[in-house]
TrEMBL record:
The keyword DNA-binding does not apply. Residues 152-165 have a biased composition (Basic residues). Residues 126-165 are annotated as: Disordered. Keywords: Signal. Residues 1-22 form the signal peptide. This is Si:ch211-76l23.4.
Length: 165
């Protein structure tokens, strides 16, 4: 029995040695471990590729539909509960307060610009009617009198041009 085991062991050792030497004699492949996508392209089953593409597209549609449904109907199962994360919860609260303050400020500015736009439209309309009607009418008497008086009580000062001869 022992000589049989020894002969099997020697046979296995000889086969392994032959495989190792054959592997060393094989010429090294000259690829850079890059996949050659053109190799075997003529043997591709286009029907199988189309079927695989259809299956993947169906999976994508199903996954996106389920995610959309979960986000619309049961978003708490997907998103974390932010109130448990105290610093994040405070940051979100501060951000919400700042956003509301900015909305209020934007509303105030919109009201102010509406008044300014109305005033500018009136000035443009009066200028266009003055230009169409000829010389400007005399200014209405105001609280402060002066030759170059503007609305709001401001004077327009113009430099006197001096001619030197």
């Amino acid at each position: 029995m022992m000589p049989f085991k020894l002969s099997v062991l020697l046979l296995v050792l000889a086969v392994v040695t032959a495989l190792v030497t054959a592997q060393r004699r094989r010429p090294a492949s000259r690829t850079n471990d890059e996949w050659n996508y053109r190799d075997g392209a003529d043997r591709v089953n286009m029907r199988g590729v189309a079927n695989l593409t259809q299956v993947l597209d169906d999976w994508r549609f199903d996954i996106l539909t389920q995610m959309k449904g979960l986000l619309q109907n049961d978003h708490q199962s997907l998103l974390p509960e932010y109130s448990r994360i105290q610093p994040l919860s405070e940051a979100l609260d501060d951000l919400y307060k700042e956003f509301n303050a900015l909305k209020e400020r934007l509303g105030d500015l919109t009201e102010k610009f509406t008044a300014i736009e109305a005033f500018i439209d009136e000035v443009k309309a009066s200028r266009s009617t003055n230009n169409n009607n000829g010389p400007a009418p005399a200014p209405a008497p105001g609280p402060a009198s002066g030759p170059n008086q503007r609305p709001g009580g401001r004077r327009v000062l113009r430099k006197k041009t001096t001619t030197s001869t």
